[in-house]
């Protein structure tokens, strides 16, 4: 199964409430994916900085890590995750240092504005652990997982991030992901887990590196990815939606003057403000949808 | 409404779906508790499923999966959109959706009328077995897949592979058909078909609003009914 929710705000006044709205939506999708959950939120950020979202084992001493990194590095810890903000120019150097000084720490996402959290457990519990309801931002996506292609681990939880400010959640299963993965590795894209969805994320990152826009990259995936999928993809400026050509996995969207919302089922949207008067529709199969902050 | 009719209200913001369905299932033949108003459905699943009494259930808002599934006798009205599988395997009665319906509306249904005022998603009427489905808008791909009996009337367009592997059933489409599925062909619209179509439109309350002559009829070419000896080498 798996459940997906996504929220893209058009009305700035709602930005402080993004996390609260998203966590409410996520909670309704527990039944579709009680194994694990995760979310990415696009909040505050500076274009000359990079926020690295780090993950480590329960009880890890992130403050100690900051001290080891030196240079006044600061981390903001939330349960098993922490956000380390560094000058964009130093990103590679910091990543190298992390690998050397703290190999037990994983970088789960990076971007000027994106923060990414995921854990095993009931989605409502995961949202509470990371205090999702208090987060502010312009847009966010979240996922509840019922595992099929790989084990129930934090690594197998969604979203997957394979590029700066890029993330993907997936409901479905890809049948040719091993082939795509081999092709990506040949093209120099590293896939860290055994998960099919990470391959889809890596594929889109690779297409965008080759100069394609997100919309074009999603179009390309119609030719190159085989299987069942509903994808919701986040970038710094917006989010995109794509369903496979036979629309195997469910999707419902709602649009008002204030927001665009995505849910695997209407239940996820039922609590949103003004939903009674929203334009409700199901995304067409094999059609790329994209909402961009610049265009909104 | 006659004087003996009793009306009930059920608010799903506080009551449980199970309690609603249990109350509806407890109704006996001939009971006069015939009008049920359900508020705050919020896309919940299996609302008013498995009814078997001549009651009317009005649901004030969008419903989730399998609303009014297996319906017998009852009239179920949805004042909103419906999720996957509205009226799945209905046997008789009437279901009316004022908004759009998701995939597999009226799947495997044996009888009764399913009227969707808006659009219907993919696989509308999949494996239908005698139901009459009327869609005010368009239907998605693979509609009437493996249809066996009944009618599917579409005032709008039909998506790819309409009537794929159809056995029987009559498909009436007013708009464009993107493509026909295997063994589904356009057929002549004779007077008997226009009369049948008129009856179905009338049942949905659309008589006089649309002209049966504007529709085309599609059905089975019946070439897949029997094993073809030319395919023997495939085994």
TrEMBL record, chain A:
Q: Which Pfam families match?
A: GATase_6
Report if keyword Transferase is assigned: yes
Sorted alphabetically, the keyword list is: Glutamine amidotransferase, Transferase
Q: What is this protein called?
A: Amidophosphoribosyltransferase
Q: Which Gene3D superfamilies has this protein been placed in?
A: Glutamine Phosphoribosylpyrophosphate, subunit 1, domain 1
The organism's place on the tree of life at top rank: Bacteria
A Gene Ontology molecular function term for this protein is: transferase activity
Task: Pinpoint the Glutamine amidotransferase type-2 domain residues.
Answer: 2-294
Identify the CDD domains for this entry: GlxB (cd01907)
Q: Which InterPro entries match?
A: GATase_2_dom (IPR017932), Ntn_hydrolases_N (IPR029055)
TrEMBL record, chain B:
Q: Which GO terms describe its molecular function?
A: oxidoreductase activity
Q: From what superkingdom does this record's organism come?
A: Bacteria
Q: How is this protein named in the record?
A: Glutamate synthase domain-containing protein 3
Q: Which residues form a coiled coil?
A: none
Segments forming domain Glutamate synthase alpha subunit C-terminal: 49-189
């Amino acid at each position: 199964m798996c459940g997906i929710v996504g929220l893209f705000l058009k009305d700035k006044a709602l930005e402080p409430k993004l996390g609260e709205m998203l966590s409410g939506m996520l909670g309704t999708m527990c039944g579709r994916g009680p194994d694990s959950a995760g979310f990415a939120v696009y909040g505050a950020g500076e274009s000359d900085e990079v926020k690295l979202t780090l993950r480590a084992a329960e009880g890890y001493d992130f403050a100690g890590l900051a001290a080891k990194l030196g240079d006044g590095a600061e981390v903001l810890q939330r349960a098993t995750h922490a956000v380390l903000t560094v000058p964009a120019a130093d990103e590679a150097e910091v990543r190298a240092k992390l690998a050397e000084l703290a190999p037990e720490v994983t970088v789960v996402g990076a971007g000027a504005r994106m923060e990414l959290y995921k854990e095993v457990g009931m989605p409502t519990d995961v949202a509470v652990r990371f205090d999702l309801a208090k987060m502010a931002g312009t847009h966010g996506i979240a996922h509840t997982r019922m595992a099929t292609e790989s084990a129930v681990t934090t690594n197998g939880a969604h979203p997957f991030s394979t590029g700066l400010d890029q993330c993907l959640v997936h409901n479905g299963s890809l049948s040719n992901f091993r082939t795509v993965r081999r092709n990506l590795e040949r093209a120099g894209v590293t896939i860290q887990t055994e998960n099919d969805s990470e391959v889809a994320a890596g594929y889109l990152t690779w297409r965008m590196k080759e100069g394609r826009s997100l919309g074009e990259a999603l179009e390309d995936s119609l030719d190159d990815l085989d299987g069942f999928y509903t994808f919701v993809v986040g970038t710094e400026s917006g989010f995109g939606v794509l369903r496979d050509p036979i629309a195997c996995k469910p999707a419902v969207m709602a649009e008002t003057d204030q927001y665009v919302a995505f849910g695997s089922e209407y239940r996820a949207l039922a609590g949103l403000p003004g939903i009674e008067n929203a334009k409700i529709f199901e995304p067409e199969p094999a059609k790329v949808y994209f909402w961009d902050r610049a265009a909104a | 409404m006659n004087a003996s009719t009793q009306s009930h209200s059920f608010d799903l913001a506080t009551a449980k779906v199970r309690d609603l369905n249990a109350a509806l299932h407890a109704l006996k033949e001939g009971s006069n508790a015939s009008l049920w108003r359900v508020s705050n459905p919020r896309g919940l699943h299996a609302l008013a499923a498995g009814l078997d009494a001549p009651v009317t259930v009005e649901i004030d808002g969008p419903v989730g999966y399998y609303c009014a599934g297996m319906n017998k006798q009852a009239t179920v009205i949805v004042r909103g959109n419906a999720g996957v599988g509205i009226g799945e395997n209905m046997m008789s009665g009437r279901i009316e959706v004022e908004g759009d319906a998701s995939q597999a509306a009226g799947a495997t249904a044996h009888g009764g009328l399913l009227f969707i005022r808006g659009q219907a998603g993919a696989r509308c009427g999949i494996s239908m077995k005698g139901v009459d489905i009327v869609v005010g808008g368009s239907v998605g791909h693979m509609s009437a897949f493996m249809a066996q009996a009944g009618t599917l009337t579409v005032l709008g367009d039909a998506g790819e592979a309409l009537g794929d592997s159809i056995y029987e059933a009559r498909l009436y489409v007013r708009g464009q058909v993107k493509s026909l599925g295997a063994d589904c062909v356009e057929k002549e619209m004779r007077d008997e078909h226009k009369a049948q179509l008129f009856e179905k439109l009338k049942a949905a309350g659309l008589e006089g609003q649309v002209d049966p002559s504007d529709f085309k009829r599609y059905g089975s070419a019946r070439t897949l009914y029997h094993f073809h000896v030319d395919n023997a080498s495939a085994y």
